[in-house]
FAD-dependent monooxygenase (Streptomyces lavendulocolor), 405 residues
Amino acid sequence: MRVVVVGGGIGGLALAAGLRRRSFGVTVFDRDREVRATGGYHITLDGRARTALAELVAPEVMERLLASASALRLRDRDAFWDHRGRLLGHGPDLGQDSGIDVDRITLRTLLAEAVGDDLHLGRTVSGVGHDGHGAPQVRFTDAPPVTADLVVGADGVHSLVARHLAGGPTNSPAGVIGFSGRTPLGDLSPREQRRLGPRSGLALGPRGTALYVGFLDPVGNAALDAPELRMSVTTGPTYIWGAMLPESVATDALRGLRAGALRAALLDRFRQRGWAGPTLEVVARADPRSVAAFRFNAASTRAADLAPWPAGPVTALGDAVHATPPTAGMGAGAAIRDAAALLEQLSEVAGGVTTLPEAVGRFEAGMRRRGSEVLTLAMEGVRLILATDTAGGTGSAGDRAPRIP
Ligand SMILES: Cc1cc2nc3c(=O)[nH]c(=O)nc-3n(C[C@H](O)[C@H](O)[C@H](O)COP(=O)(O)OP(=O)(O)OC[C@H]3O[C@@H](n4cnc5c(N)ncnc54)[C@H](O)[C@@H]3O)c2cc1C
């Protein structure tokens, strides 16, 4: 069976790595010219995503990943603060948590290596259709079409493949705009280093402002102690933060700014909304080149609304189907779990146990449940931010705080 994957992001590469390992013919097309051309933030993979990944990639790839990842179990309990830095409460003990945090660039690079020369970069797919025999094919504006037995759209939030299948967009803006950046722990004042500590945290403030501060230390907190295998982009304890605001005409203007100008404008917005004390130091001392703005898009939380097309030789996975805001830290994990589920179904087709349409149908049914579950969790965070869009904001965020990735 020949599979063409549109999109070599997290889900597409995870699927292709698994297909290649099981001797399927696979080709991945991605418009990016470089694998490292991807967000500079970190990805949390929970225990289920980690297990799915271990089914897709070879054990030596998994070892390199773990040697480059920060173990959640080595982190202190998460903390919740208000916008003035007052501690509101702590999250659960992470001692038994098998999840990991890994640089997005490291994860994508490792997956791309596992896919090898089956990944074709700089190739933008312009359309999906069928050849004269009814076989699915992908089209390009600058090259002949490529035909396959199965086409999988792993082309993210603005998926062309899912739009073709659904007859329209599969998600819409969630009403929140995010800004991410990286701040090495050593760049903070000793006092702020102590306050933040070796843990992730979330601060909630008035008028829909929130600041997630994620702690990543792939060296000191390595999930696997094998420095010779390490390939993390982050080489010391670092906070990777995400500042969030309700989207408006005024916040839209921020999206046109870059680097130091973006960081300064973001700090202004938060100060205008009453943030004070040490809480903004992590933003103020971020490497300006790391600061970026991104919009949150979300698909429906209802399983029945996801992948609303009849099962056939063109399907999709990951954000293309269930675009998930980062507020639960589960979008990439869900894409990897989709990839493992599709591989399992396709292996049954190859073994003669079932037909391709039946296998795709079963895969899509599982993906609807999975997508609905992660979207429901992620939208709790979005709703909390939008609910505090009042002058008073939150007084007791600890009681209602969303999951911290
Ligand atoms: C700041 C931030 C933090 C996040 N943190 C987490 C986290 O902690 N944990 C977590 O699980 N998730 C997290 N996420 C979400 C996660 O990044 C996504 O859910 C995940 O990347 C989805 O994977 P995907 O393969 O579906 O899409 P993507 O990884 O977005 O890949 C889509 C790919 O398709 C390519 N493409 C698109 N159109 C075309 C085309 N026409 N032709 C060819 N190629 C095309 C793109 O270049 C891209 O490489 C975060 C997201 C953000 C923005």
Observations:
- Residues 6-12, 29-32, 39, 41, 43-44, 124-125, 154-156, 160, 178, 180, 242, 294, 318-320, 324, 326, 329-333, 335, 405 surround flavin-adenine dinucleotide (CB under 6 Å).
- The first helix runs from residue 10 to 21.
- The radius of gyration is 21 Å.
